[in-house]
């Protein structure tokens, strides 16, 4: 919380705290900490453990430790259940009682990489944790169950496992050489198949695309009062109510101000101020209510605003309706041509 330096400073403080007051104890066989979860193998008596706990809890009034002992030689630590067995440890994958099998469903409008990310994680853990054969098969069946419950097939899991096995074998046979790949990376909001087409076009031109989604917790849980869309800037469209001719425009100010300028140009018979007003005055068509005005994109002034305007001009430039823009021949970009309507 707070400054981005907070986690780093907290970790440095705890590292110094551990070196001075914890790991120096002779009864600790091993000590591991991940953030605020700690596991210790204690070789002393229970009384010695209680004395040690009281001692470290008196060192700093803001740093307090709680004790959880093993039950039936087992203890849960992070996502593992660790069991003491003779002179070794036996590992199992641990899931909380409140755990559900929910991941991003196969039918969800998300990039494929996002959908299978959870399964990559599960399979990587399956290979990296030293599980017994029995526990390995038990965890594999749970992964199968999660996949099927969310609309995926078992073949997906089998293919991911084969891919992981090949990766492990390749790394064991050949030294991994670091590759310095210089490529331009761009993020793109995922909207379905059209986003895949855009990404393929960008990749052919040397741009690597990383997809992102709009349905984030920040957007879903944002409780701030939303600004009226007419008070934002971006790309808009005006449609003639009688002949359905279209004008596409952009504005770096709010939409309401720009729309009033179009109205003023029509009412004051000033066609030089608005192509849409010029059309109405030349044809004698009547000005409809503000339903003829439609916001297409909200965006601040800049390159993105110009590209979005070009995109909408290209989409509207077809044989079905007249386009009132003075400049209709936008940049002949392979990317923009994806959205070009068929004539």
UniProtKB/TrEMBL annotation:
Source species, domain of life: Eukaryota
Protein name in UniProt: Reverse transcriptase domain-containing protein
InterPro entries: GIY-YIG_endonuc_sf, HTH_animal, RT_dom
Domain Reverse transcriptase: residue ranges: 1-96
Species of provenance: Parnassius mnemosyne (clouded apollo)
């Amino acid at each position: 919380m707070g400054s981005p330096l907070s986690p780093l400073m907290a970790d440095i403080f705890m590292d110094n705290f551990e070196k001075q007051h914890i790991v120096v104890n002779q009864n600790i066989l091993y000590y591991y900490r991940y953030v605020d979860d700690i596991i210790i193998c204690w070789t002393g008596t229970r009384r010695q453990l209680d004395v040690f706990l009281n001692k470290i809890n008196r060192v700093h009034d803001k740093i307090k430790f709680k004790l959880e002992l093993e039950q039936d030689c087992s203890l849960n630590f992070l996502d593992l259940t660790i069991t003491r067995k003779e002179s070794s440890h036996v590992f199992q994958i641990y899931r909380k009682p409140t755990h559900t099998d929910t991941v991003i469903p196969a039918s969800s409008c998300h990039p494929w990489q996002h959908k299978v990310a959870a399964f990559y994680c599960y399979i990587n853990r399956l290979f990296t944790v030293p599980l017994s054969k029995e526990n390995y098969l038990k965890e594999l069946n749970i992964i199968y169950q999660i996949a099927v419950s969310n609309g995926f097939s078992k073949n997906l899991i089998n293919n991911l496992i084969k891919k992981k096995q090949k990766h492990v074998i390749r790394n064991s046979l050949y030294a991994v050489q670091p590759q310095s790949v210089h490529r331009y990376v761009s993020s793109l909001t995922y909207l379905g198949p059209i986003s895949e087409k855009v990404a393929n076009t960008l990749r052919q031109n040397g741009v690597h695309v990383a997809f992102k989604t709009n349905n984030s917790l920040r957007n879903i849980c944002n409780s701030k009062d939303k600004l009226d869309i007419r008070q934002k800037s971006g790309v808009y469209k005006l449609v003639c109510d009688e002949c359905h001719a279209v004008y596409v425009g952009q504005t770096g100010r709010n939409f309401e101000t720009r729309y009033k300028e179009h109205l003023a140009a029509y009412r004051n018979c000033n066609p030089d101020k608005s192509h849409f007003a010029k059309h109405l005055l030349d044809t004698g068509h009547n000005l409809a209510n503000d339903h003829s005005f439609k916001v297409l994109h909200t965006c601040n002034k800049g390159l993105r605003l110009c590209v979005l305007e070009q995109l909408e001009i290209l989409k509207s430039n077809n044989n079905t309706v007249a386009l009132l823009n003075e400049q209709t021949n936008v940049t002949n970009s392979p990317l923009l041509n994806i959205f070009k309507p068929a004539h």
